[in-house]
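Objective 1b. Sequence-to-structure analysis of Transcription elongation factor GreAB.
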Amino acid sequence: MTLESFAPLSRFDVARLESVLSRYAEGSARASHLLELANRIHTGDHADPVVMPRDVVTMNSTVILTNVAAGRQFRCTLVFPHAADSSTGAVSVLAPLGAALLGTRVGNTFEVAIPSGSCKYRVDELVFQPEAVRRYDL
């Protein structure tokens, strides 16, 4: 997906993600998915959380994704690194899947680089978005 393909990011998410990414910029080169995430944060559109479109994946959103090649659906929640837990489906925004997921819309298909090539996912449902229920503290 190109930068134009992504929906606006929440200004609240952007402020918190800038801090998180700055910690990972020190001392080592960033992986390509983190460079792409940083580019979206710094050059993409931002929206006030109060008017965030209800079909956009924001931080702490829970979604139903389909692995297109395998035809399997799974549920995951996009979280900050400290809350990541694969046993509960909590995916870090700094992981390749999490970085690609932020700012997608229901119906979007996107690719994630994996060691054996790439994997294509589709966003089937946005089960929970904090902004939709006015939870600006998540």
